[in-house]
Amino acid sequence: MELLKDFTEQFWKNFIKSRLGKRFITIEEIQKDLDDWVESYNKERPHQGKKCCGRTPMQTFIDGLKIVQEKVLENYRKPTEERNMN
Fold first, then answer.
1. Which residue, among 58, 32, 26, 34, has the nearest Cα to 45 in the 3D structure?
2. What is the rounded end-to-end Cα distance, in angstroms, of the chain?
3. Where in the chain are the domains?
4. Beta carbons within 8 Å of 19's beta carbon, 6+ residues apart
């Protein structure tokens, strides 16, 4: 739970820092700006993690899913007795 809290705090800190001095008139403007920023945050900037090798957060997530899927399939193919031991 602490990791989620740290991530959330970092996310909002980055968002607010990048928007200092920007003025919004309507809630719709704020929502549009937030949506655009989240898109950029996830798909354009390099991930800040040490082992992410310059990939974007979305690419890191997608690559991680592939690894998890491979592990699940690998485990599923094992005989039942062997799966229960892990």
1. 58
2. 25
3. 2-85
4. 33, 37
